[in-house]
């Protein structure tokens, strides 16, 4: 009879996904309640500010002017990706901790932005990184950060060999 750990894979890491979701939603509520649209509070002059922006599109406001249909498309994609991530977590082995953390971060971020899309019709962004007030990156949020870190971890995981522990050489 398989033990509980092998039966549920690495689903215990869903706690990290929930933590990301909670931090994301609390931070979005804080900044939405504290700032006017596009107001900036400089944290580190010439580099970092808090601001409030809404994104009706995807990353970098892709399809933001789509007329509303993109809300449901991106929500559907997030639901499908989230389901795949949960199944993937369940199938992971005991030694797949790095991968489990990566998947949990991506899942938590996806759920944070999914909630915004369904409940509000847009994603709340509040982090603005810039260079001397000239070259702005698009505003982003904690969910986006978790997705980015998780995706980087997933990319790095591809360089690990699952059987020998050696790196993959081209």
UniProtKB/TrEMBL annotation:
Its localization reads: Cell inner membrane
Q: Which UniProt keywords apply?
A: Aspartyl protease, Cell inner membrane, Cell membrane, Hydrolase, Lipoprotein, Membrane, Protease, Transmembrane, Transmembrane helix
Active-site residues, Swiss-Prot/TrEMBL = 125, 144
Its annotated pathway reads: Protein modification; lipoprotein biosynthesis (signal peptide cleavage)
Entry's InterPro entries?
Peptidase_A8 (IPR001872)
Cite a single GO BP annotation: proteolysis
Q: What reaction is this protein's catalytic activity? A: Release of signal peptides from bacterial membrane prolipoproteins. Hydrolyzes -Xaa-Yaa-Zaa-|-(S,diacylglyceryl)Cys-, in which Xaa is hydrophobic (preferably Leu), and Yaa (Ala or Ser) and Zaa (Gly or Ala) have small, neutral side chains
Major location category of this protein: membrane
Q: Which superkingdom heads the taxonomic lineage of this protein's source? A: Bacteria
Q: How does it sit in the membrane?
A: Multi-pass membrane protein
**Pfam families reported for this sequence:** Peptidase_A8 (PF01252)
List residues traversing the bilayer. 72-89, 96-115, 135-156
A single GO molecular-function term is: aspartic-type endopeptidase activity
Its EC number is: 3.4.23.36
* Function statement: This protein specifically catalyzes the removal of signal peptides from prolipoproteins.
Protein family according to the UniProt entry: Belongs to the peptidase A8 family.
| HAMAP family tied to this protein | LspA
Kindly provide the name given to this protein in its UniProt entry: Lipoprotein signal peptidase
């Amino acid at each position: 009879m398989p033990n509980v750990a092998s039966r549920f894979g690495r689903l215990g890491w869903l706690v990290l996904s929930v933590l990301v979701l909670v931090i994301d939603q609390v931070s979005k509520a804080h900044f939405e309640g504290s700032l006017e649209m596009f107001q900036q509070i400089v944290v580190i002059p010439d580099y970092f500010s808090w601001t409030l922006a809404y994104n009706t599109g995807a990353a970098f406001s892709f399809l933001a002017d789509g007329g509303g249909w993109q809300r449901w498309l991106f929500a559907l994609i997030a639901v499908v990706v989230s389901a795949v991530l949960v199944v993937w977590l369940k199938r992971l082995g005991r030694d797949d901790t790095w991968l489990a953390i990566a998947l949990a971060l991506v899942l938590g971020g996806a759920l944070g932005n999914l909630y915004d899309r369904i409940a509000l019709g847009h994603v709340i962004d509040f982090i603005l990184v810039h260079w001397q007030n000239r070259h702005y990156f698009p505003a982003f949020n904690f969910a986006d950060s978790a997705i980015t870190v998780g995706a980087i971890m997933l990319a790095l995981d591809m360089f690990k060999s699952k059987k020998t522990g050696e790196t993959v050489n081209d």
